[in-house]
């Protein structure tokens, strides 16, 4: 078992476990709440996820067996950098989504503390700041969400890119399909979300954007 394989399996285990331990948050995700359970989601989850999300591990395995030299070309410096980025990105991704979803649950009075592993630090905000809108909804402006409007998107893209870079031993474009597809999907989803929020919140959305001016990376974009 090589270090690239250890890395990608660790990354995928963290991702899978996050979905399992945070299952109570799944119903409020964009996929379920807005896309609904239609042909697109059914097709993608049955045909896309099993192949695209598992591709990097299979790519490393197949090429290791094909070349009979699974350690040739491994950059340990890159692997160590990828581990650092993965841990940081996962932490931001996990904690930011926990902050948002638990804030919603607290507002509705449905929040129940859970101990599913791992419970990362700063995943629940106490007395968070928020913006009250005229339509009755609240917009979180605390925690990670005071720095940018989509911290979990940025972290998710970083993790997807790390997955692809774990295949650096054997140059090719196929490992990069997942981050490229994911980036396009995220940008498209962001534009749809902005349009929906502008229509829903009207002038309150402008106030929110003035309070949190950056979408993905604080100080940049």
From TrEMBL:
Protein name, entry field: Delta(24(24(1)))-sterol reductase
GO biological process annotation, one example: ergosterol biosynthetic process
Keyword Endoplasmic reticulum: yes
Alphabetized UniProt keyword annotations: Endoplasmic reticulum, Lipid biosynthesis, Lipid metabolism, Membrane, NADP, Oxidoreductase, Signal, Steroid biosynthesis, Steroid metabolism, Sterol biosynthesis, Sterol metabolism, Transmembrane, Transmembrane helix
Membrane topology (UniProt): Multi-pass membrane protein
EC number of this enzyme: 1.3.1.71
Record's signal peptide: 1-18
Membership in a protein family: Belongs to the ERG4/ERG24 family.
Subcellular location: Endoplasmic reticulum membrane
Main location: endoplasmic reticulum
A Pfam family recorded for this sequence: ERG4_ERG24
Single GO cellular component term: endoplasmic reticulum membrane
Molecular-function GO term, any one: Delta24(24-1) sterol reductase activity
Catalytic activity: ergosterol + NADP(+) = ergosta-5,7,22,24(28)-tetraen-3beta-ol + NADPH + H(+)
Domain of life of the organism encoding this protein: Eukaryota
Record-annotated membrane-spanning stretches: 42-62, 74-93
Keyword Transcription on entry: no
């Amino acid at each position: 078992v090589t270090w690239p394989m250890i890395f990608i399996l660790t990354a995928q285990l963290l991702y899978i476990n996050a979905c399992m331990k945070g299952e109570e948050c799944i119903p409020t995700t964009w996929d379920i709440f807005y896309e609904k359970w239609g042909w697109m989601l059914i097709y993608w989850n049955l045909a896309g996820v099993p192949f695209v999300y598992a591709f990097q591990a299979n790519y490393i395995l197949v090429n290791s067996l094909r070349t009979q030299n699974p350690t040739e070309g491994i950059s340990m410096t890159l692997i160590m950098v990828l581990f650092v980025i993965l841990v940081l990105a996962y932490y931001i991704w996990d904690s930011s989504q926990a902050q948002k979803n638990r804030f919603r649950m607290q507002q509705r009075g449905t929040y129940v503390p859970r101990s599913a592993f791992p419970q990362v630090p700063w995943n629940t905000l106490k007395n968070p700041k928020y913006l009250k809108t005229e339509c009755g909804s609240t917009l979180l402006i605390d925690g990670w969400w005071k720095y940018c409007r989509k911290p979990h998107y940025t972290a998710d893209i970083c993790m997807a890119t790390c997955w692809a870079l774990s295949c650096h031993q054997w140059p090719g474009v196929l490992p990069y399909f997942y981050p490229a597809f994911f980036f396009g999907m995220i940008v498209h989803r962001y534009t749809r979300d902005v349009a929906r929020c502008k229509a829903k919140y009207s002038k309150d959305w402008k106030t929110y954007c003035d309070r949190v001016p950056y979408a993905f990376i604080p100080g940049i974009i």
